[in-house]
Amino acid sequence: MIGLKGVPALHGGIERHVEELGRGLARLGHDVTVYCRNHYTPPDASAEGLTLRRLPSVNTKHLDAWTHTLLASLDAAPRRFDVYHYHALGPATLAFIPRSLGKTVVVTVHGLDWQREKWGPAASTYLRLGEWAAARLATRTVVVSRELQRHFARRYRRRTTYIPNAVTVPGPVDLRALEPYDLEPGRYLLTVGRLVPEKGIHLLLEAYRDVATDLPLVIVGDDPHGKYLERLKEEADDRVRFVGYVYGPPLAAFFAGSYLYVQPSTLEGLSIALLEAMSYGAGVLASDIPPNVEALGDAGFYFPTGDVAALGEQLRRMLGSPDDVKEKGAAAERRVADLYSWEEVARRTAAVYEAALGL
After folding, report:
1. More confident residue, 4 or 169
2. Quick one: how far is CA 266 from the chain centroid?
3. Which terminus of the chain has fewer Cβ atoms in its 10 Å neighbourhood, N or C?
């Protein structure tokens, strides 16, 4: 596995995806090696069933992923792995290294990264090259949403394999984990994710400012570069709580104890945070981009993407309709259990490997 920051997952959807997928493949009897970045994965880190190989990188916005993927590709290419599995468009540009040696390469596309606002023209062009590489260089291409599958069919006439993200069905949650944050179960709104512009948190803050409620808005996540977070803090009123990255029991408690989970994103692949919120039975209000609609179906509420006034109106409606919110939350929990399991993702990924190897 090449292209992620590392495991165990501290933050990041791709990191969570690879960790859970790798564990599932290991349970099926596969040997799984994950290439990790020194600054993300400590030397004593371990992950059940996985072999971790740590390599350095130039830890800057534009060079971190590229330098690590280059070193990982050069390290992995001469080794006798059966499959070289790259994740995301940027890393896919270097899949030619093992491919040129006749190796079997699988690329998973988690989203159209060149659309993200943080990238300038040069970086966006490079990521478009990664999209081409995912379509043309890989032995097999996997996509995490039906919308991505349609995109590759239209643009490249490339047949891809749809395998969505998933979640682990949660067990009992100890809501006492909310106490250090001075939060009451059922008495706050929640959003979770990396604080980058395409997550739409600025839209949520603008809408929330005009909603008369004493329920705080809790924002779980951080900004890897800081500038967007600074903007958000300037726009937030005193009801907004920025709590940074949270994992484990506290994050489970945030999901399970929320009155409403809000996903205002303008761009997604298939959001693991959204699936997790659904798995805890949270009522969900989401932007109507295709990946959100694909995940949520009719088990939640929507607003037109980017429409701050409509988002505010939906927030007011949800705050006045607790029974509707609970009903949709229960439907979302059932939907995740039926459609999005890591065990099924691992089985389908193993089938892709076998097809790519001609087995």
Report:
1. 4
2. 14
3. C
3-state class (DSSP) for residue 292:
helix
Structure tokens at 226: 């800081």
The angle formed by the CA atoms of residues 42, 47 and 52, to the nearest 5 degrees, is 60
Which residue bears the tokens 């309709």?
321
Question: From the CB of residue 277, how many other CB atoms can be counted at a distance below 10 Å?
Answer: 33
| Residue owning tokens 């994740």 | 87
Q: Is 215 left (phi over 0), alpha (psi -120 to 50) or beta?
A: beta
- Whether the CB-CB separation of 267 and 111 falls below 8 Å is answered with yes
d(CA 188, CA 220): 12
pLDDT in tens, 256-267: 999 999 999 998
Do 26 and 157 reside in the same domain of the chain? Answer: yes
| Shared domain check, 157 and 25 | yes
Is residue 214 within 8 Å of 259, Cβ to Cβ?
no
User: How many whole angstroms separate alpha carbon 67 and alpha carbon 41?
Assistant: 16
Q: Per-residue pLDDT tens for 148-199?
A: 999 999 999 999 999 998 988 788 899 999 999 999 999 999 999 889 899 9
Statement to judge: residues 150 and 119 lie in one domain: yes
What is the residue range of 329's domain? 175-339
Three-class secondary structure of residue 151 per DSSP: helix
**DSSP for residue 169:** P
* Number of neighbours of residue 311 by Cβ within 10 angstroms: 26
User: CA of 211: how far to CAs of 25, 200, 220, 323, in Å?
Assistant: 46, 17, 20, 19
Does residue 266 sit in the same domain as residue 345? no
Contact indicator for 277, 219 with CB cutoff of 8 Å: no
DSSP alpha helices (H): ranges in the chain?
13-27, 64-76, 89-92, 96-100, 121-136, 146-156, 201-209, 227-235, 249-257, 272-279, 290-296, 308-319, 322-339, 342-356
